[in-house]
Amino acid sequence: MKIKSALFNVSSPDLKSCPILAMPEVAFIGRSNVGKSSLINLLTEQRALAKVSDQPGKTKLINFFTINNNWSLVDLPGYGYAKVSQQQRFDFNKAVSDFIEKRKFLRHVFVLIDSRLPPQTIDLAFVQWMETCDVPFSLIFTKIDKETPNRVNNHIALFKQHLGENHIAVPEILTSSIKTKHGRTQILAEIEKALKTEARAD
Predict the structure, then answer these.
(1) I want to staple 188 with a disulfide (CB 3.0 to 4.6 A). Which of 1, 168, 179, 197 is the partner?
(2) Domain map of the chain by residue range?
(3) How far, in Å, CA of 49 to CA of 38, rounded?
């Protein structure tokens, strides 16, 4: 796949206010500070399409980007961010769960995992919940240039082991590096396949 154009469309606080674009969507989500915005910018080859911040949890809205005028890349709020009230945290979780469970145009979800860390409870719990949703998903282990290959491979193997121990099917696993651009071609290929799948039933 070649991305020829990428434009910010709109931000929405919840499923009800999301635009009706009638085009297929792929979504990206992950724990705060996992490198989601940077990966979106790498995929689209635009430095500032998605806002990158050192402050975890900066993305609190559902952000839509129109790609090649025929599909949408959706940037979902990172799970597990701090410094919000309990009501805000509830609203955030409901917005994300509603979108993933009910959004008709959603074809695929890419769940980002920090490759520098051993399996985190919040990531494992999110993947376990994703398995209950009627939407295909893949894992992308990010920041692989910031750790030794052996440790990265070990963390991925441990993650897969934890999934197996909890009887969760291991999804497609990809790896990425913003610095080296590793994984860009493979991720775009997965997106291209996802866009060819059928829409969800009403």
Answers:
(1) 1
(2) 6-195
(3) 9
pLDDT digits (tens, 9 = 90+) for 48-70: 888 764 444 445 789 999 999 99
**Rounded Cα–Cα distance for residues 74 and 142 (Å):** 18
Q: Spell out a b/e string for 97-113, using b for 16 or more CB atoms within 10 Å of the CB, else e.
A: eebbeebebbbbbbbbb
> 8: phi > 0 → left, psi -120 to 50 → alpha, else beta; which?
beta
CATH architecture of 6-195: 3-Layer(aba) Sandwich (3.40)
Q: How many other β-carbons are positioned within 10 Å of the β-carbon of residue 195?
A: 18
The whole-angstrom separation of Cα 180 and Cα 136 is 27
Per-residue pLDDT tens over the stretch 16-31: 999 988 899 999 999 8
Sheet with 25-30, strands from edge to edge, namely 6-12, 62-67, 71-75, 25-30, 106-114, 137-142, 172-175
